[in-house]
Design brief:
This protein has 749 residues and is α+β, with helices and mostly antiparallel strands. The chain has twelve helices and 38 strands. The structure holds (2R,3S,4R,5S)-2-(hydroxymethyl)piperidine-3,4,5-triol. The site of (2R,3S,4R,5S)-2-(hydroxymethyl)piperidine-3,4,5-triol has 11 residues, from loops.
């Protein structure tokens, strides 16, 4: 059991040798955080670490500074975790300790809230602490689960009204964490369409700082995850925290530095445009937040998050299965395709070794452009006279799996669905609806709408042998309102929309358990921990440019595992940037993820098709590493002039690894440079084979794990030196052009 309760000192110690959280009941019944972070020995009291002389409350000297459930109105003037309005309109509640339970395993969250799980009781332990507010009868139950194998704690909160009058929940954070100092840098992951999850790294400063979404989805602008790191922390060493929210809707992720130099982290539902009335007897549960700690740098932090999200948030048969190499027709054809053209593309895809053919947008209604037909999930026989079934069979007859694109939460004003049910599109009666991409969002807070879509999309999937579904979501929510909710419950709208979306996922994945779902939202606008519970992989970004992808995949990798990152090779000039990078360079970047192609293989030169064959072979031979290996960031594309990046994947037993180094532009007279790698066995010898194209490797050489980690692989001069060139002769004068890469394959000798 990794949770101990000491009744003498009124302390809980959640500890697994990798991290410790020590919480205590304070004399006033509040719950204090005495310590969170580095592992401490079980047994001793750590109450002395909790501050005794907090100077913040003028007339309450002695109150604690680090709280598990901060509330407003009682002298802690920092941002609260819980705000509840009582029947008299006051917003003062004081939840005090009444009871706790220590449970083996991890109970599921109610309803459809996505959450991590334990496959057997030994994998996690859970502490539930009940805190009651006398006057309102509100009970807040804090849930903290610690995993046995990872320095990760999952937190959520359940609120139940045991009183006689309605209360209204105005703020209910999934997690807060009070840290005793402000020597931190905050990293959030921000950007826009086609440049998602760029790390933004700044020192914390007095006051509040952070990110959030009020778009109805987690968004491409900011991600529901953050990192706090010590200023000296690097990828390889030092202390850091990572936090992710298992929620695909509106969120808030922020840090507040108080006037005594403490740092409070908050993660949860965005309190703006949120209010949840609780009638007597009713309850409400927040989404789950995961808090990971590392004393060994940022890559180790990411490795813990990758494990917990990839192995215990993702579910279903595809969680651990090799993900197929796919070919998606979107950038190859856009809306301009028919049965024969798709079958020809699939045949070429098969010849290159691809395993899954995906038909993207444009197969239904009269969808010749993006201004119509969303909601009319009936195949367009003009393009596909044999229907989806005929196409799927033709594709599968070639030995490929078949996948289909859907965008189930949307409706086009020009659609039969909208003409029949205009009230199913989100909007405020009597006001105009804002269109985006000529489409509207369906009201998934209305169960009748979810029912209809479950039937319509379910019929499509059932109508043909479909192995994979790409679930898109191409606009955000405006004019939030559901006529199915009474006026005083409209504050529930955004939450209910997200739950309605999860409900559809649940129904479809239950009905079609073997289908692999990939989530997508204009690329990466709903790339979050919550969606992984149904869709174990997501389209990382609409930007397929390899240089941009170095940055996007680097940023995404802080929280999310490679198995969750859809990464495709597309045609040049790149459709997002116009850049022309070599085919092998594009593939060498996309291989670090769930790999595929997004182009028309029939339009390629034979030499390029041959290159694709080699790339697919290279990838599939090492697929377990590329999808499920331990990912380590080595050289950041955000540092220096951003001209280089390096990362690696390695097996758990350190017997194999692939190390990648990328250089965008070539400069003359390069400095001497070796790339030190990590995660190998220092006592082992490794056979190293370097690939600078997928045509043929350079001669294999052998190095010790100690040397590779302490000194590194030769980048300049290159290791090994290309044949016919002596080190020192013209090694430093070699000009090899722009967009170069080196993939080092390492195997224990
Ligand atoms: C946005 C997605 O990100 C693309 O991959 C593609 O599916 C289009 N939507 C289709 O409309």
């Amino acid at each position: 059991m990794s949770i101990a309760w000491n009744p003498e000192t009124q302390e809980w110690h959640l500890g697994n040798g990798l991290t410790s959280w020590v919480l205590g009941v304070l004399p006033n019944g509040w719950i204090g955080i005495h310590h969170a972070g580095a592992p401490l020995a079980a047994g001793p009291s750590y109450a002395h670490l909790g501050p005794h002389d907090f100077r913040g409350f003028d007339n309450r000297v002695g109150e604690p500074v680090a709280l598990a459930l901060p509330v407003p109105g009682l002298g802690d003037f920092r941002v609260p975790a819980l705000v509840v309005e009582a029947a008299d309109g006051s917003q003062v509640v004081e939840p005090r300790y009444v009871a706790h339970r220590i449970l083996a395993g991890k109970p599921a969250l109610p309803g459809l809230l996505p959450a991590t799980y334990a496959e057997d009781e030994r994998e996690a332990d859970t502490l539930e602490i009940d805190l009651a507010d006398g006057p309102t009868g509100l009970v807040a139950t804090l849930s903290l689960s610690i995993f046995r194998d990872w320095p990760v704690v999952a937190r959520s909160m359940r609120l139940k009204n045991f009183g006689a009058a309605r209360v209204v929940v105005r703020t209910a954070m999934s997690a807060t964490l009070d840290l005793p100092d402000d020597d931190w840098r905050l990293v959030t992951f921000s950007g826009a369409w086609a440049r998602e999850r760029m790390p933004v790294d700044r020192p914390v400063v007095p006051g509040r700082q952070g990110v959030g979404s009020l778009r109805g989805g987690s968004g491409n602008e900011h991600n529901p995850s953050l990192v706090l790191r010590r200023p000296a922390t690097t990828e390889a060493a030092g202390e850091c925290w990572g936090a992710v929210l298992a929620w695909s809707g509106n969120f808030l992720a922020e840090a507040e530095v108080g006037h005594f130099g403490t740092t409070r982290l908050r993660l949860g539902l965005h309190p703006e445009q949120f209010a949840w009335p609780l009638e007597p007897g009713a309850s409400f549960t927040t989404p789950e937040a995961l808090l990971a700690w590392s004393g060994g740098g940022l890559s180790a932090l990411s490795a813990s998050l990758h494990e917990v999200l990839g192995r215990r948030m993702a579910r279903g048969p595809w969680r651990d299965r090799p993900r197929p190499v796919l070919l998606n027709n979107w950038e190859g054809t856009y809306f301009d395709f028919d049965h024969d053209r798709l079958v020809a593309m699939a045949a070429e895809a098969r010849a290159t070794g691809a395993e899954l053919f995906v038909l993207d947008d444009g197969w239904f209604g009269r969808r010749d452009s993006d201004d119509r037909s969303l909601g009319d999930w009936v195949v367009d026989r003009r393009k596909l006279p044999q229907g989806i079934d005929g196409l799927a069979r033709a594709v599968r007859a070639q030995g490929l799996l078949f996948g289909l694109w859907i965008e189930p939460e949307m409706v086009s004003p020009d659609s039969d669905l909208f003409r029949a049910h205009p009230d199913w599109a989100i909007g405020v009666p009597g006001r105009r609806r804002t269109e985006s991409r000529q489409q509207l969002v369906l009201d998934f807070a209305n169960p009748a709408v979810v029912d209809h879509v479950a039937g319509a999309i379910g019929d499509v999937i059932a109508s043909a042998p479909i192995d994979y579904v790409k679930w898109d979501w191409n606009r955000f929510i405006t004019e939030p309102y559901s006529p199915t909710l009474p006026p005083d419950r409209q504050g529930e709208f955004f939450y209910r929309y997200t739950i309605g979306m999860y409900e559809l996922y649940e129904r479809l994945t239950t009905r079609f358990p073997d289908v692999l779902f990939e989530s997508c939202a204009s690329g990466g606008a709903r790339f979050d921990a919550g969606i992984l519970a149904w869709a174990p992989q997501a389209w990382t970004s609409d930007d397929t440019d390899a240089v941009e992808r170095l940055r996007i995949q680097w940023g995404s990798s802080f929280a999310y595992p490679l198995s969750s990152m859809g990464a495709h090779v597309s045609a040049v000039p790149n459709h997002q940037t116009g850049r022309v990078a070599p085919l092998d360079f594009r593939a060498a970047v996309a291989m670090f993820g769930a790999f595929g192609y997004e182009l028309d293989p029939t339009a390629m030169r034979e030499a390029d098709r041959a290159a694709v064959r080699r790339q697919v072979a290279f990838y599939t031979e090492r697929r377990d590493l590329f999808q499920y290996g331990r990912f380590t960031r080595l050289r950041s594309p955000f540092e220096g002039d951003g001209n280089e990046a390096a990362w690696m994947v390695s097996s758990a037993d350190a017997s194999r690894a692939v190390v990648a180094h990328y250089r965008v532009l070539q400069h003359p007279w390069p400095h001497r440079d070796r790339l030190a790698v990590r995660g190998l066995d220092p006592a082992a010898r490794y056979a190293v084979t370097c690939w600078t194209s997928f045509e043929a490797p350079m001669p294999t050489f052998e190095r010790g794990g100690d040397e590779l980690m302490a000194v590194g692989l030769g980048i300049e001069p290159p290791d090994p030196m290309p044949e016919g060139r002596e080190a020192g002769a013209d090694g430093h004068r070699l000009v090899r052009g722009d967009f170069t890469f080196r993939l080092f394959d390492l195997r224990r000798a």
